[in-house]
Structures are given as structure tokens and as C-alpha cells.
Amino acid sequence: MSTCRVCDGDVVEFLDLGRQPLSDHFRSGPGLPGEFFYRLAVGVCGDCTMVQLMKEVPREKMFHEDYPYYSSGSSVMQKHFEDTARRFLKTELTGPDPFIVEIGSNDGVLLRTIHEAGVRHLGFEPSGKVADVARASGLRVHGDFFEEVSAIEVHESEGSADVVYGANTICHIPYLKSVFRGVDALLAPDGVFVFEDPYLGDILEKRSFDQIYDEHFFFFTARSVQAMAARFGFELIDAERLPVHGGEVRYTIARAGARRPSEALVRLIAEEDARGLSDLCRLHRFVADIHGIRDDLVGLLRRLKDEGKTVVAYGATAKSATVTNFCGIGPDLVAWVCDTTPAKQGRLTPGMHIPVRSPDAFATEAADYALLFAWNHAEEIMAKEQEFRRAGGQWILYVPEVHIAGA
Ligand SMILES: [Zn+2]
Question: Please, which residues have CB less than 5 A from ligand 1, an ion?
Fold first, then answer.
């Protein structure tokens, strides 16, 4: 049992994914000392229904100088953030001197569009190198973590924000109480706090257990976010399902009573209640699904190895750390993994130490099968790598079940 980070209720564990490394800790050699491991387990709060990790990894271990994830890396995500920025410019940032604050602004993929429109902005990004990329394109980025103290400082020097936004950030933050107090200090009376994160409803349905890793502390539903918002004097007024990153929801929160809840929110909450998303029996079924995937995937990889096939992987994602370490997939089953991030190339994946190579290797060295870890970008990747299939290669996917794509 642990204590809920939102409401202090009791959190009951339902899933144990075993010993896991830091999901973004790519190592330069296998014999190096000091690889950090922790037990990755998930529970649900009996009071507010928030699904969360049983234990947090210290944030400085994850979001540091060398944090290797760049939001602009995917053209689909780039367009997603441009569209989001344009929507804010049209609907929320319309006053005389509007101001938007982004929590976890990464390389500035959203703020760039805001900046080009001449609107005042500030990003919070403690991961040094990605923040420098944003600064280099003229964006204003604060190097601290967003929390009560830093938000109050910004409010004193810059005034109220019309929008506080976070994409794939808010679910990373165990100390959400401080974040909400910060939003309370910073947000204009009629402003909105908008965030989008992986949706528990999609994770259960797609059995995408690889959304669970050190950085993802919370797994939100509209129900749990509604309860959380109310606890801090706010109100959830809209929830919009998004197709990105394997299924997310964008939550819009306003000060209590300031705006009317949308029809879409009412519908989603009714749907969640009907599905029993945070019921323990539903969560236990998810656990059984995951064990089935592990057995099937390892069985398939062993069979292909016995048949003398070459198996590689595509996308050394943070998600893949959970899959490889939970299933015990190392270089004996997957020869190497290719990834477009230069900082990962030439290194070894966290925990299981699979060599990471550049996408050039994928283009030049024929493999029989490629395990697609970046399945959330499947369409984009398969379109780009058509030659692989033409040469006889086949994609292996593992959500919602283990299968060969197109087979
Ligand atoms: Zn709770």
C-alpha cells in the first residue's frame, strides 16, 4: 500500500512490472557500474480512483541535461502541436496582451507557432539540452521545474497567464499538489489549464502496458482528473480524445464555476463509468492480458531464433524499456534496435543492453523481422520504411496482441 499523491487515500497495488532501469538511460558499455534499478509497480487509489505508480523515481534522475527525447522528432507530432497552438491563438489568446505558459516545453515545438504570432510566452523546461534547442530559436524558456514557488515568481514578474499548457508532462509529475497551487497562483480568473496525457481507457483497451515507465507517474481518466481538479478549487470542463501517442485525452480545467462543462465531457465520464475503468476487477484483467502478451512475444522471438531468422527492433523508445525488461528480451533475441536520436546511437538500451544503431543500418542490413517498439508512430514509420517490406521484411507488433503486421 502507498499514499495517493492527489488525495492522501490508500493506493492498492494491482500490477508489478518487476525490476526496471531508468527508461532513458542509454549506456556506453555493458560493464559500467552504477546502473539504477527500481521496482515498477502500479496501484489505484480507493478514494479518488487515480491510477499511479507505487513509488516515484527522483525527478533529477529523469529530466536532466542529457534528456534524449525531442518532441519535434515526429512530423505527425509537429503538426499536432502546430494545430494546438493555432487553436489557442484563435480561442484563448485573444485579449490585448495574452500570455501562455507551457509546462515541459521540450524543444519548443508548440511555442514556436505562438512566438511567430507575436504572443507572449514562457516555457518551463528543466531538461537542459532540449531547452537549449528552444532557446536557440528565440523562445523564452525557464530552466526550473514548474511548481508553486517558480509559478509565483513568474506571476510576480509577468502577470497572469491566459493558458497554462502541458503535453505529456503533467502525468510525469508526482507532486501535483504543488503544480495545482502554482497554476492557482498564475492563472487568470477566466484562464484555462490544459493538459494532454496517455489515457487509461486506451491503455486498458490496447493493452499498451509499455505506457507504464518511470516518467509516467499518473494514468488519468476524466473521472480521476475531475476529482483532482475539484480538490484544488478547479473544475474539469472538457475532455477530448486524441489519436496521438497511442491514445491520449486533452483535459481542459477552469476555475470552479467559471465555465460550463462540455457535452463531450459528460459523455466520456458516462462511458468510463460503464466500462468500470478503475475497478480492480477490470485492472486485474489488464494484468492477465499483459502476461499473455509477454508469453506470446517471447515465444515468437524464440521460435524465430530457432528458425535462424534475423530479428531487429525499431525505435529505442522509453516505452521499450518496460517491454524488454519485463519480458527479458536482450540481444540474444533482438540483435539491435535502430533509432533516429543521435544521442542514443552507439549505446546500449537500458537494462537489457541491446545495441542501438542509426536508421542507416536498418536500410542497409536486411533483417527478416523488425519488432516495432515505436508502434504509436506505426503509420508514419511503415510509410517511410516501405523498402523493408518490399525486401521481404515483416513487422512484429505486440499491442493489443502479438501479431505480424498485415499477416
Ligand atoms: Zn486518491
Answer: 4, 6-7, 9, 45, 47-48, 50
